[in-house]
Amino acid sequence: xxxxxxxxxxxxxxxxxxxxxxxxxxxxxxxxxxxxxxxxxxxxxxxxxxxxxxxxxxxxxxxxxxxxxxxxxxxxxxxxxxxxxxxxxxxxxxxxxxxxxxxxxxxxxxxxxxxxxxxxxxxxxxxxxxxxxxxxxxxxxxxxxxxxxxxxxxxxxxxxxx
Length: 162
Description:
The chain contains seven helices and eight strands.
């Protein structure tokens, strides 16, 4: 078990990822910096795994920076132990397949929502399913994750509160 303080980095872009973590408590933001802005890809919460999967599995440079939004407690497994776990846990390969399948399913849902929903629909859906995040993380990160400017997000939020 490891503790990461608010503002500290779990991973930084361009490095190699050698760990997978399960979040016991706290919030971590996964984001990238483009030429003119930060783009939030995801906000990971208690009960979820966090890593750069492409880097962990294939050794690619990390694409995303992962930073703690709150003090967080993580269970961490390094790549070496991750690669050995299949020899220790007979069902590991099936569990790993389910884990990667869940990641893929979440990604598909996010792509579909961005392609098929209006900004208002994305806001409503996300709010309905992640209400706690609205009180725990800066709203500009949620706006970015939903693919909208803070101004659009604020306008939609104001309309929803009326």
